[in-house]
Each structure stands twice: as C-alpha cells, then as structure tokens.
UniProtKB/TrEMBL annotation:
Naturally occurring in which organism (per UniProt): Thalassobaculum fulvum
The encoding gene: lpxK
MF terms in GO: ATP binding; lipid-A 4'-kinase activity
Gene Ontology, cellular component aspect: plasma membrane
Enzyme Commission number(s) of this protein: 2.7.1.130
Cross-referenced NCBIfam families: lpxK (TIGR00682)
Transmembrane segments: none
Annotated protein name in UniProt: Tetraacyldisaccharide 4'-kinase
Coiled coil: none
Function text: Transfers the gamma-phosphate of ATP to the 4'-position of a tetraacyldisaccharide 1-phosphate intermediate (termed DS-1-P) to form tetraacyldisaccharide 1,4'-bis-phosphate (lipid IVA).
Any Pfam family matching the protein: LpxK
Family: Belongs to the LpxK family.
Binding site for ATP: 51-58
Metabolic or biological pathway: Glycolipid biosynthesis; lipid IV(A) biosynthesis; lipid IV(A) from (3R)-3-hydroxytetradecanoyl-[acyl-carrier-protein] and UDP-N-acetyl-alpha-D-glucosamine: step 6/6
Length: 323
C-alpha cells in the first residue's frame, strides 16, 4: 500500500477519520492489557517504530547486531517475516529461501546473523534460545504484546517524523505517540531530523542519531545516468541518496512498500533504462524481491546505518545485556 497524502497534514480527511482512530487505539490498548507476554531467558531488544511503513528499522537492527557481536555476543534476529508465506518458526537460509517465503527483511538480516521468522514471536524467541543466541534483536514488533523485551528502541525517519500526529486511519501512527514512548528506552532518528523529531519528543527519551551511508563501491555511480526504482517506505529517500553520491537520476519510479516484481515488470524497467541510456538501480531490500533470473539486469545500491556518536549506543547496549 501507499501512504495516503493526508497522513502528512492534519486536514479535513484526518479529522473525519478521527473517531475510527479512537477505536483502533482502544483495541490496541486492550490487546496489550490482557496479554501474557513471554519473557525470554536471554536479553531481547525490540527495534520498532510508531508509524506505518518504513522508518529504517532493519538497518538499525543490523547496526545494533554489529555492536553486540563486537562485544563477543552471539546475536539472533527475530522477525515476523512480513510479506512471506511461511509462518515459522523457521531459520532463514538465503541460499534456500526467497522473499516470497520469508519476506525481504529476514533475507538481509540472515546475511549477518542467525535469523528466525515466526508469526508467533514468543515461539520464535524460544527457537532462538534453542539456537544458542546470547541476545535476540527483534526487527519490528513494538506493538506486539506476546513477548516482553528487555529494552526497546523506537526508530523514526528524520524526514517523515510522525506525519500529522494522528493514529490510523486518520494518520500514520500505529498507536498514540505517548503510548509508544512509555514502552521504549530510547529513540533512534534515522537521517537528518528535518521533521523536528527531537523537538517533538522534548527530552522524553534519549535520542540516538544515525545516517544511512552508501557502502564502498557506490562511488561508481557518480556521474552515471541511472533509472532508479524502489518499493520501500519512502522511495524518494533512495532517489535523494542517489543524487547525493553524484548519480544523474534521469528517471525514478516509485512502487508500494514491499512490492514484488514479476519478470515483465523488471524487463519494462530495463528497457526503459536502455531507452534513456541509463543504468537501472535499486536498493538491497528491493533487490531480494526481484525474480532471480532478473537480478543480474539491475544494479544494487547498498547502504548501512552509521551512528553519529556510537559511544552512547555501545554504552546503552552494554547496560541492556549486563556487561
């Protein structure tokens, strides 16, 4: 799905839908109130967000895992496997599974550490305990009451912020912001804080800041004519990144989040790029959803999250895992 435009502005449509937001909020609170969450025997860190769509959770989860591995810990990722057909619990193997089976994020996570998908997060957490994980990093799940995290991190896109500040369907929030903040220990702002996230929080929680930095090798796109395309939470963010490295974006095509391309769609993009004398390029997250036979036709632009100040992040993680 695409986020409706009125989610960005508190206008007439948002106000009309506000009564439904009250119902959504009440249902979410009731679900949490009557839940009996599983408490894992090892630390579990929830990397979640408060809005529908992408905020940068997976890059943040990968960055936290890298820090934890540097501390000598065996990390296990836990994911719902959004967009995949498998219910789990299932250990993800990128050589065997595809995005249709396990979703796109788990395929990226599995390149870094043991990754388990499970619609039932409590069952998935137990599975990872059996796999010998010293610490579990749960990608998404802040609104899931079936497990009790040791600590939670709220991830916010610095460009989009909290939209019009209303709860779905009147706005992009999955729950009232105060409800989310009450259950997290810190906030990670990804990208430049153009939406004034830190000001909106008014010191309610410590803020960690990170940027999605192009990985070595992406400098080859400088001066190159490209046709970019993406099906992520905010595709325009990818277009901006391409321009920042000096690529000449002659055309950019946006798709809904988690869009799964068929061979014909990819060929249309490749042929259009050929007409424009351009190189078709997409994100790593999108690339795993391309048909296997078409992946060599498209260039991939990898990025990674880099903390502006890693010291507070490391100190926070050490406290969480008891080091």
């Amino acid at each position: 799905m695409r986020a409706p435009g009125f989610w960005a502005v508190d206008g007439r449509m948002a106000r009309l839908l506000a009564p439904l937001s009250t119902v959504w909020t009440a249902a979410g609170r009731a679900r949490r109130r009557y839940a009996s969450p599983y408490r894992p025997a090892v630390p579990l860190i929830c990397v979640g967000n408060a809005v529908a769509g992408g905020a940068g959770k997976t890059p943040v989860a990968l960055a936290l895992a890298a820090e934890l591995k540097d501390l000598g810990l065996r990390v296990g990722f836990l994911s719902r496997g959004h967009g995949g057909s498998e219910r789990g619990p299932l250990r993800v193997d990128p050589a065997v599974h595809d995005a249709a089976a396990v979703g796109d994020e788990p395929l990226l996570l599995a390149r870094s550490a043991v990754t388990v998908i499970a619609r039932d997060r409590a069952v998935g957490a137990r599975f990872l305990e059996g796999e010998g994980a010293d610490v579990i990093v749960m990608d998404d799940g802040l609104q899931n009451p079936t497990v009790a995290p040791t600590a939670s991190l709220l991830v916010v896109d610095g460009g989009a912020g909290f939209g019009n500040g209303r709860v779905m369907p009147a706005g992009p929030l999955r729950e009232p912001l105060d409800d989310a903040l009450a259950r997290v220990d810190a906030v990670a702002v990804v990208g430049e804080d153009r939406a004034g996230v830190a000001d909106a929080l008014a010191g309610a929680r410590p803020v960690m800041r990170g940027l999605l930095e192009p990985l070595p090798g992406t400098e080859r796109f400088a001066g190159t004519r490209v046709l970019g395309f993406a099906g992520i939470g905010r595709p325009a963010k990818f277009a901006e990144t391409l321009r920042e490295v000096g690529a000449e974006v002659v055309e950019f095509v946006e798709f809904p989040d988690h869009h799964r391309w068929d061979a014909d769609e990819v060929m249309e993009l490749v042929e259009r790029a050929r007409e424009l004398d351009a190189t078709p390029v997409t994100t790593e997250k999108d690339a795993v959803r391309l048909p296997a036979a078409a992946r060599d036709m498209v260039e991939v632009f990898p990025v990674a999250l880099v903390w502006r100040d890693p010291a507070p992040v490391t100190a926070w993680l050490r406290r969480v895992v008891g080091l």
